[in-house]
Amino acid sequence: MITRILLSICMIFTFYSVQAQKVKLKKDVIYVDGEATFSFAKKTHGTEFVVYTLNTKDELFTAIFYAGNTEGRDDNYYKLVFTNEKKSMEYTRTYWNKYLIGWLLEQDILNIKGEMDPDKIDGFITKYDENISKRTVILH
Question: Where are the domains of the chain?
């Protein structure tokens, strides 16, 4: 009985340690599991997060944060633009900076070799695009 419980606990820890990559942003470089993988820049007072192939200005994608009209967070959203594919999506999940990279790695859009898989983008957009701007009225 105790052996079975210990084995189950070991399997759970092994599963979680294998699944998640450690993402760190430092001096315009994104490190995945300690390896330099992508370059990045923050623009427009930190509301744009642009990711490039490592040590180049070949843009992979841009994430843009749109603050809503209220002090609450219920109307904030993000737009993710896959530059070369000319595709975009909008989402409300709070994935930004390293958490966004982790999400894209988890969904196999990005890999630890520093590459993006354009064949997976359509499925990702279909699954997670919330089309926020199409259903939002903006008051001026």
Answer: 22-135
